[in-house]
Amino acid sequence: MATSTQTTTISLESYGRDNTARPRRDAPSTSTAPNPDNVLLVSQVADSTVPDGGYGWAVLFGCSVLTFWFVGTSYSWGIIQAALISQKLSSPSTLSFVGSLTTACISALALVNARVIRLLGARNTALLGVCFLALGEILSGFSTRNIGGLFVTVGVIMGVGTSLCFMVVSVTPAQYFHKKRGLANGIVYAGGGLGGTIISLAMNSVVEKVGPAWTFRILGLATLGTGLPAAWLIKERSPIRSATFVEWRLFRDFKFIVLFIAGAVATFPLLVPPFFLPLYSNSLGLSSSAGAGLVAGFNFSSAVGRLICGFAADHIGSLNTLFISLLLSAASMLVIWPVSNSLGPLVAFVIINGAANGGFFATMPTVVGTVFGSARVSVAMGMIVTGWAGGYLMGAPIAGYLLEAYGGEQRTLMAYHPAMFYAGSMALGASVLVGLIRLYIDRRVLEKL
């Protein structure tokens, strides 16, 4: 037993500041040691038996279809938002609040949903999530002239479905993939980028032909028809039996604390571009179709970025990839977007920011599983995602309030600059925090981590 415990301590030291595997001089060899993290050892043992394929590919397909709908619909909210603004339903800030509430539920219900997965299993949780998502969309078709109704149907009901689906696709692939885990997560979240591309183009056309109400209803029926079969494909290799709701000792880990804060900061700017690109393109004198095309381009770039970042995470390390994606996101919003007064620079911004934006979602589950262990990924991911609530809920509305404060969407392009600089600064702050974790674990810049 003493030998086994000592082995655990040695293996955990590889996550230390200098990334070398050496035992601590004060490491006790009994089970009463205060610091050894047996979950990491369990994760290493479990990862050694992971098939890196097999039925995992079917699971990835099912997860990708789910992200196609819940991510794609969320990232296409700007299309319906622009249509509702043109109908004088409410202001940009209020309507962006509705869309933000959907994604905020991911954070608000993260810990609860982690427990739901342990109680119901991944498949049943996914089926439940699809039903809530489709129900919210169908009911939203009856609420397009009532902003309060949209807060309930889009914000809460769709939010519950989105949050259930998000947790399922975030924790299930880790059971089937180890060496290809980054690529697996990239494939799953690329489905969301592809969904955003197709849904935004289709949504603009459908809105122009039948209006927002029937657009919502058609979305709901399509989600139900394709989402339920996809959810049925999802299942765990082994049940998640952990009874831990919140693992409080993780907050004694410097790496976890900084990653928690970095994720919380990074979510503030994520929804600003897709929510406001249609309005910004209108201010440039472009048509609504051009605005939808920009959102579609953003989402397609996001899909490509998720695949590239997933692949990169397996080859240069997930933390390195996360840092690069956040840095590119910040640079695009601080340097490129403010000077995008014509279609050319705006397309460049859409490509770079979309790819970097997708990289955040594709790499975060891989970072959590790699640094804190795949056996606790549902608990750790639930805790980290809970910290995203503020950014999801207030990130885009803050940009809307800044836009209104400096003249509104009908004024000059300068009115958008405060919102751009706010979003870019938040992304830059998040990249600095991730860089801090990276250097804390290993100061060798070129090391895979």
Provide an overview of this structure:
The chain has helices at 2-12, 38-48, 56-75, 77-86, 92-108, 110-120, 122-140, 147-171, 181-232, 254-270, 272-283, 288-316, 318-336, 343-372, 377-386, 389-405, 417-441. The protein has 449 residues and is an all-alpha fold. Helices cover 75% and strands 0% of the residues. The relative contact order is 0.15. It has 17 helices and no strands.
Short description:
By secondary structure, the protein is mainly alpha-helical. Helices cover 75% and strands 0% of the residues. Helix 12 packs parallel to helix 14 (343-372) and helix 13 (318-336) runs antiparallel to helix 17.
What is the topological layout?
Blueprint: H1 2-12, H2 38-48, H3 56-75, H4 77-86, H5 92-108, H6 110-120, H7 122-140, H8 147-171, H9 181-232, H10 254-270, H11 272-283, H12 288-316, H13 318-336, H14 343-372, H15 377-386, H16 389-405, H17 417-441
